[in-house]
Amino acid sequence: MTHSQNAELERQAAESSVAGPDNRLRITLMVNGDRREVEIEPRVSLLDALRERLHLTGTKKGCDQGACGACTVLVNGERILSCLALAIQYTGQEITTVEGLALDGSLSPLQQAFITHDGFQCGYCTSGQLCSAVGMMREFDDGVPSAVTADVASGTIDFSDTEIKERMSGNLCRCGAYVGICDAIREAHSEVHSEVHHAGESR
Amino acid sequence: MATTITKPETLFGKRVRRQEDPRLITGTALYLDDLKMPGMHHACVVRSPHAAAKIRGIDTSAARALPGVAAIFTGADVTGLGAVPCAASIPGLRVPHHHLLAQDRVYYVGHPVAVVVGTDRYIARDAAELVEVDYEPTAAVADPEKALAAGAPAVHPEWPDNVAFNFHQEGGDTEEAFRQADVVVRQRITSQRLIPTSIETRGVIAEWRAGERSLTLHSSTQIPHLLRTLVAGILGMPENLLRVITPEVGGGFGSKLNVYAEEALMAYIAMKINKPVKWVESRRENFQATIHGRGHVDYFELAALRDGTILGLKLKLIQDLGAYHQLLTPVIPTLSVLMMPGLYRFKNVNADVVGVFTNCVPTDAYRGAGRPEATHGIERMVDMLAQELKMDPAEIRLKNFVHADEFPYGTATGLTYDSGDYAKPLHKAMAEAGYEQLRREQAAARAEGRLVGIGLSTYGEICALGPSIALPAGGWESATVKVEPSGKVTVLTGASPHGQGEETTFAQIVADELGVPMDDVLVVHGDTAVVQYGIGTFGSRGTAVGGSALYYALQDLKAKMKKFGAMMLGTEQVNFSGGYCVDEATGKSVTFAEMAVAAYHAKKLPANTEPGLVATHFWEPPNFTFPFGAHLVVTEVDRETGAIEIKRYVCVDDIGRIINPLIVDGQVHGGVAQGLGQALWEQAVYDESGQLVSGELTDYALPRASRMPWIESSHTETPSPVNPLGVKGVGEAGTIGCSPAVVNSVVDALSPLGVRHIDMPLTPEKIWKLIEGARA
Amino acid sequence: MISNAFSYHTPETLEEALAMLEDGGGKILAGGMSLIPLMKLRLASPESVVDLRRIPGLKAITEEGGAVRIGAMATHHEIEISPVIRGKCPLLGEAASAIGDIQVRNMGTIGGSVAHADPAADYPAALVALEARIRLRSANGERTVEASEFFVDAFTTAMEAGEIVVAIEVKEEEASEGFKYEKVAHPASGFPVVGVAVRVKKSGAGIAMARIGVTGMGPHAFRARNAEALLEGGAGAAAAAAVVGEGEETNSDLYASGEYRRHLARVHAGRAIAAALTRAL
C-alpha cells in the first residue's frame, strides 16, 4: 500500500469516528491486499463483516465468544480473534484471512504440510489454525518467548513440540488433530528455514 | 493389440493424502453458514431460561413491531405438525409428545418456545429479545437418582415416577455364578454428561419452491436420508418433494445423528413465509439444546474366583435421558448392556436399565454411544478385582480373555464376536511401553514417595452398525458406482462422511478394484436428490458398511465391464485387472476407457446386457464388527496439588484391516483426545434448579493442544470376516479405550493410599481430597 | 451472539473521552476481551462505546528515573515482549505471558484488565506484589491508587464514576531481586484458578524483602503480608507459604472450592518463593 493510500484510509477512519446506533457507516478494509468497502453498523464484528458482507466465508465462527480460535485472522501479521473485534476498529489495517494464504494460487508450504500430516479432519477449525500457525511462526522467529519458554534470557528458543503446543493452545480442534497440526507446523517451519539457510549458502 | 500390463500398486493400506483436503485447507469448502440464498431470511429461536415452568402467555407484539421482522411462530402455530421423532422401540417405553415448540410448559433450559424471523440475523436477534414470555416456574429435577426418589418433582406430570422405561437383559445364571464366587467387588461408577461440541454448531437453511411444491433443506447432519423421511413425516409432505442437502459438516460426533425441532421448524417456516430461511445455532444454544452424551450412574457387581477367573457381572444402570427422547435416546443404554462382558469369557450377565426423565436437554449418541460407559465400567471393575486379589492387572485380563481359537464367539448378551486375538494388542502395548521396566520404575518412585500409576484398558466395541435387526431404521448401506462415458468414475454413497475421509478411502477402494487412478474417482454424498437412499455416518459404520456396499457394487460393475470386454475381444473368457480386460489366450486387451465408450455408445451390446455402466448395491451386514485393543497410560500425580501428568500414552488398536493409515491415525488421535476429555476435564453440570452451569466454552473444558500428551499409536490387524474388506471401524476406538486406562492409571498411582475408585472427570481437587483423606 | 446496537466513538484526547462518558450511558472499550463477550451475551448493553485507541500516548511503555509507566492501552503481548518490562519489572512480563492465549494477548490491554477487575485475572497478583499504582484520570484531574487498595471486590475497583485508567506505574525491580509468577490455569478459560506472584531480595542467608501477591483465590487480589513478614523475619519458605490466604475470603466454583484454592495458593506460594530465591542474586 502506498503512503497516500494509507493517509486516505487514516482520514476515512477519523471521519468514521462517530457513529450513532442506526448510523450505518461505510468503511474500507484492506483484506488480503484488496481494498474492500463495506457498510456496517458499529456492532458488526470483523468476523461478520468478512463473512456476511465481504463474502469471505473461509474464516469460521465457532463460539463467537473468543474461546475457540476458529475465527483467528492476522492483522498486520498478528493473530487476533475476529469475533471479538469490531470491524470499524480495523479500518486501514492489513487483514489476512485463510483466503490470502495461498501464494500465487498455489498452496503455501504450511497448507501443504497440513495435508501431508493430516492436520485436520472436518476442516472447520482449520482456517483459524492456519492463520494462527502463520502468526505463531513469525512470533517464534522474532524471538518472542512463550509461557513455556524455559530460559527467556538466553535468547534462543527451541522449536519444540511443547513450544508449538503452547503457542497453538488458543485454537481448539474437536476432531483432536493436534498431533498432525503440531507435525505440520514443525515441518513447515523447518522447510522455510532450510530454504533460508540454503539461499544463504548459495550466495 | 497386445499389451504388457503391470498391475498398478494396490492402494489398500497406503498412506494416501486426503482427496477432500484442498477445499478444506483453502477456506473454500462450503459449510452450512457459508451458504446464502437470494431473499434469504434469518431465524432466531427464543428459548426457555427455566428448567421447568408453565407458560402463562406469550406477547409478541413488541417484536412484531420491529422493522424487518417477517414473522413470529409460537407453540400455537405448530400444533398441527408432527412431533420430534424417537425411533426407539423398547417395550413399554413412555414417549412424551415432543412438540416442535413448547406448548403450555417448558421442560429444560433451552427448550424452544418461539421462532422470530427477520430480514437479517441482527434484526431476528433483536426481535427475539422483545418476545415476552410469561413463565410460572415450577419445581425441577436435574439429577437422575434424585428424579427416582419418592416425592421428586415430576418432569412430565403424567408420569410422576419419572421412569421412561425399564429394560432387563440377562444371559447364563448370574445368581449361581455369584453363589460360586470367592470374591465379589461392587462399585458405583458414573459416566458424566458430556457436550459433543462440534466446532461447527448445528444449522439449517430451508428453501420452498411454491410452484413445484418442493422443499430443499440444507442441514448440517450425519443422516440426510433419514432426516428427509422423518421431516417429511413431521410436515405431512410427500417425501419425494423434500430434498435434503448436507453441505460440508464441521464435526458431528453423534450430535448430528438426529432430527431436531429446528430442522422441521425451518422447513415449515420457509413454506409459510415463502422465503428461504436460515437458522444457525449459537454456541450457547449448542450447549443448551443439542443433545448431550453419556449421563450414566451404574452399580456394578463383579463375581470371581480367588484365582482371578471372572464368573459373572450384575449391573443396575440408571440412564439420565433428559426431558424428551431424541432419535435414539433410549437405545443408547441398551448398547451399553450388550457390551458389558467386554473381552472376557464369563457367560453370566444380569443387567437392569432404568431410563429416567430429568429437566435437562436429552442425552443421545455421542462418540461411542453407550459403549464407552460399558467399557469404562467393566475395565474399572476388572482393575478393582485385580487390586482386591493383589493380581497384576495385565495378568487378570490375560486370564479371562476370550481365546483366539474361540471365534466366532457367542457372548452372554447374545452377540457373536467376529474375530480377535485379544492378548496380542495387550502384549504389544506392554512391550512397547516396557511394562516390566515401568513397574520397576514405579516401585522406585513409590519408595521416594511419588505417586506414579500405570493403567491398562483392554477394550472391545461394537462397530459397523449394524445388522438392520439392531437398528430402528435399518443398518445396511448403499453405494452406486457409475463409470462415465469418458472413463471417469463417480461413486454415490449413502454414508455421509463429515471428517472421516471416506472420499479418499472409497476412492482407494475404487482405484484398486477398477485399476483407475484415484484422481479419476469422485465420491459424492449428502444429497438425497442425487444419491440413492442411505443410512448415514455414525457408529463406526462408514467404511465397514458403506465401503462394503461399494465393494459389492464394484464387483457387479466389473462383471458387466467384463461382458463388454469379452465382446470387444471376441472371446468368452477375460480377466479384468489393472484397468484392462485381457484375453489371457491371446494377450489382447481393451482399456477401461474403451469399454466405457462401448457401453455408452452401445453400437453393439453383449447378449442380455443393457447399455451404460452403473451398478448399485444395498449391503446388509450379517453382523457387527468387534474391534479391540489395549491402551496403557502412565501418570504421575502431584502429591501436593492433585494435578495429573500423563507421562506416556501407548495404544494398540486392532480395527481389522487398515485402508489408509494416515486417516486411521487421525481417528485414533481424535478418539483419544475425546476420551481424555471425559477422563480429565469435561463435564456438563446442571445445578439443583436445572440451570446448565457449564454453559460456555470458558467453563466446559475441551482438550487443547497444550494439554495433549504424545500418543504412541500402533496396531495389530485381525481381519473381520463380516465384510469383504476385512475392516472393523475406527471412529470410536480411541474414545472407548482411553478413559478407563487413564482412570485405572490414576487409581493405580493412588492405590498405596487405599484409593480404589474415582469418578470422572479426575479434577485435581478430587484427587487432592483423596490424598488428604488418606493422610487424615 | 449479537450485541445490542450502540453508537461508537473514537475520541482523540482524554478530555474528549471523559466528556463522552459524562452522561453515564457509555462504556470504555479498550481491548474488548471482556466487554465484547458481555455485550454479545447482552449482559452489558451500553448506549455508546468509547474506544480509546486513537488517544495518543496511551499505549506507551516508558521508564524514567526508576519508575516504569505502562500506558493503559498497552496490550498483554506488548508488555510481555517490551524490553523495558523485561529489563525493569520482569515479574509483570511473566504475568502477561501467562494470560490466556496469544490471540487474547494481542488484543487485550492492561488498562482494560485492571478496570474490569476479574477476580481471576493474572495481572493483579503481580501488580500488588510490585506495589504498583493505578493512575486514574477524571474531569477533576488525576490521582493514583495503590494496587492493593484498587482491587476492592470481584469486578469492583476503587474507581469512581467518570474515571479512566490511564496508566500503571511500577517502581523498577532491583536487579538483584528474584521474582516468579506461578499459576494454575483453569482448563477451559485459561484464567488462573490461583496465581501467585513473588518478589524476594536476599540479604546474606536471609531475606531482606519479600512481596507476595495472590489472585484467583478470593474475590480480589491481595498481598499476603503475613507471609511476607515471616519470610523477612527469617522463617523458612514453607512456614511462610503455609499462612498465605489466612483470613482472606475465598471464591468457589464448579472447578475448585474455596478450600482447595486456599491450599493451591499456599502450595504455589511455596514453589514461587523457591523459584524466586533461585533467581535472586
CATH topology of the largest domain in chain B: Aldehyde Oxidoreductase, domain 3
Q: Which structural class do you get from the secondary structure elements of chain B?
A: alpha+beta
End-to-end CA span of chain B: 89 Å
Task: Report the CATH architecture of the largest domain in chain A.
Answer: Roll
Biggest sheet overview of chain A: 5 strands, mixed
Number of strands of chain A: 6
Overall, the morphology of chain B is globular
- How many structurally independent domains of chain B? 4
CATH superfamily of the largest domain in chain A: Beta-grasp domain
The major pleated sheet of chain B works out as: 7 strands, mixed
Share of helix of chain B, binned: 25-40%
- CATH C-level class of the largest domain in chain A is Alpha Beta
Helix and strand topology:
The complex is a heterotrimer of chains A (203), B (776) and C (281).
Chain A: H1 3-15, E1 18-19, E2 25-31, E3 34-40, H2 46-53, E4 72-75, E5 78-81, E6 94-96, H3 109-116, H4 126-141, H5 161-167, H6 178-202
Parallel strand pairs in A: 2-6
Antiparallel strand pairs in A: 2-3, 4-5, 4-6
Helix pairs in contact in A: 3-6
Chain B: H1 21-25, E1 41-47, E2 53-59, H2 61-65, E3 69-74, E4 105-106, E5 112-118, H3 121-130, E6 132-137, H4 144-148, E7 163-171, H5 174-180, E8 183-191, E9 203-209, E10 214-219, H6 224-235, E11 242-245, H7 261-273, E12 277-280, H8 283-289, E13 296-304, E14 310-322, H9 332-339, E15 348-357, H10 371-389, H11 393-400, E16 409-410, E17 416-417, H12 423-433, H13 435-447, E18 451-460, E19 477-483, E20 489-493, H14 502-514, E21 521-524, H15 542-569, E22 575-577, E23 580-582, E24 589-591, H16 592-601, E25 614-619, E26 628-637, E27 644-654, H17 661-681, E28 711-715, H18 733-750, H19 764-775
Parallel strand pairs in B: 1-12, 10-11, 14-15, 20-21, 27-28
Antiparallel strand pairs in B: 1-5, 2-4, 2-6, 3-5, 7-15, 8-13, 9-10, 9-12, 13-14, 16-17, 18-26, 19-20, 19-25, 22-23, 23-24, 26-27
Chain C: E1 7-9, H1 14-21, E2 26-29, H2 35-40, E3 48-51, E4 61-64, E5 67-71, H3 76-81, H4 83-88, H5 90-97, H6 102-107, H7 110-116, H8 123-129, E6 133-138, E7 141-146, H9 147-150, E8 151-153, E9 156-157, E10 164-171, E11 178-185, E12 192-203, E13 206-215, E14 222-223, H10 225-232, H11 237-241, H12 258-279
Helix pairs in contact in C: 5-8
